[in-house]
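Cross-posting from the modeling subforum.

Setting up a comparison between two proteins and wanted a second pair of eyes on the formatting. Protein 1 (sequence, then structure tokens):
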Amino acid sequence: MTSLPSSTASPEPKGGQVPAKGTLAVLGDPPAFTEPLHVGRPNVGDEERFFSRARDIFSRRWFSNGGVYVREFEERMKALLGVRHCIPIANATVALEIAIRALGLKGEVIVPSFTFVATAHALQWQEITPVFCDIDPKTHALDPEQIERLITPKTTGIIGVHLWGRPCNVDAIAEVAGRHDLRVLYDAAHAFACSHKGRMIGHFGDAEVFSFHATKFLNTFEGGAIATNNDELAERMRLMKNFGFAGYDKVVHIGTNGKMCEMSAAMGLTGLECLDDFIAVNKANHAAYTEAFASIPGISVVPYDSAEKCNYQYVVCEIDAADFGLSRDELLRVLQAENILVRRYFSPGAHRMEPYRSLYPNAGLLLRETERLCERILSLPTGTAIQEEHLQRISAAVRTAHERAGEIRAAFAKS
């Protein structure tokens, strides 16, 4: 792997002097940062290597339709994951839609509500009913026991989500699916370069879909991929991503335009060369947050299994309002006032977004753990854009919010 060059380091946000200990913007003090600090600022890698590839793309005049960089990116992904097929796609949502259609899903498909809404949209877009299933509060992923209770004669499949890069209970899901003759697809948008019991994500279910959106630790500007070990399924999905073409002017299958372009693949290859460095930075950030919050009541960082490969691309916290002194939304308000733009992943849950809240108004009755978690989760800035001083300021703001919770709530009551 190529080492991450120092030139790619993020410029220091213009925060000036570190605010005095115990100060908070919501209480009238200067914010910790004068420029916003985002969750998911893109990793870049070696810019010169990318620009070299970009110049080559211009000289070749081959921008799309399976050029040399798309083919190389595919081979590199296959080798890293150890799968038979890993098909580059324009983005992960289109990848989901293609995989769903290629698998012949119809009727009802069981899916978590605690996920990015695109997971459900990919079904509803194709007039397939997403049946929202509750999650295991420990893993934040589909609860296999709840899946069993939702299966009907109309059920054709299950879509699990490897949330935060932590694998679903793939063994239990496979057992349920096998007994009911259901197809299994995994939304692995968070889980590239992660493993389960020593096997890389990409090997499970009938297929797994990755995201390389700009906010992901490995990005292609915009992009995705479908991994599978099923040759027949892979052949069908390759046809579908290119309008069904099986040769020059020969269309043999219905399809769409799901092709990844050369420039996206060039960015993906550049990122792959720095993959170990990206992961090392994420892991160090996760450890720093975990240590900083260990002594603060009511806030806990979601852990990862150190025995498995992990990308550590999300630093996710659960907020217990009773112990912390503020609710998740109150802490979010405090931190955003400091220009620390934390995110509520995933609130309020897909079942409470349109069109689902109108189509399935009672879905929440079976989603107790989902609704509880939607009120507790907060995602913090990480990645190569975050420096040690940033982590110190963020941690100090969280600690001060806990220590001055009473004052903050009084101030909010007056506003």
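Protein 2 (same layout):
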Amino acid sequence: MEILIAQPYLVSYGGAEKFVLKLAQHYDAKVSVVKYDPKRTYGEFKNVDIIQEGKFLSNFKLGAYYWNLKVPWNYDLIISNLAPSDLIRNNNSPVLCFIHDHKKGLLEPFQLGIPFWSRFSYFIGNMGYRFLLSKLTNKFEVVATNSNYNKQILKTQLHRKDIEVVHPGVELNDYYNNDYDNYFLFVGRLDPQKRIELAIRAYKGFYTKNKKFKLVLVLSGSAADTYFDKIKKEIGLNKDIKILWNVNSSKLKEIYANATAILFTSKNESFGLVPIEAMASYKPVIAFNEGGPKETIVNGQTGFLVDSVEDMAQKMNFLAENPSIVEEMGKEARKHVEREFSWQVFFKKFDKLIYKAYKAKEK
């Protein structure tokens, strides 16, 4: 089967990009992108058949591009990945629409820490995208998403009840444990939605009781981002908070392998790849009790689900003072991922959706 994956950009080290990479490798699929920068995303894409349009379009033009696109390449099925690539269904079929993140509320942009005109532009683009997507909702052969949390929101937004849930996975053999060094770890994109400042505040609260542990922030993005100004202010003069920028996959796995535990602070994350990568590395995860982590973390066994910065700081202190429990939780975390979140488990389910979408065209 000839599969084409539609992905707007490949210019970062994110969960959605990793998801596309695994799909492309598993199905030997072509990936159609508007913009691809091999220096800013996973190096393994160099071995993937990428069709690059060589453009960098604004949100307005990007939506119009996919809405009007009539795919000229041979394919049996298109997998749309990340908005607004799902608008490709207007002139093409069959399409398996995979949604990583529910469509944000129209006022969501005004809650972000970005300049006003960027927020306003985001708002207008979001409104236009929602209108166009509403015209296609019932045309998709299959709609799938990455969590039950996401599904419940999408059922209301898309007015479709037949949304499938398939949790993404990790390559188990790639993740390992070296030891439990004296540092807590945060991994994420430089984005206000990741709420990096909350991880820093939790660490500061913990730091008042225990100065033997450091905080390592592994960030993807650029220090020129205006959101980083907020992060710098949060860090202040604390020299035990270390930042590593845009590390490659191999180095990141090594950092995971040596951490004590991982902090996850994203706002209502639809799924969250970082927690399962951490658990695959035998590390407990301390995450806010919202969104996808409620489906991936077993509270009290593979990590902790917390309701406040203060609660996160307390759990950090608990783990710092109980290394044997850290090790025990880490082992349980690894077993949990092996049972529920391997790529083998994912593709066993996703293969059925591929077949379902392909057969739907024949009806």
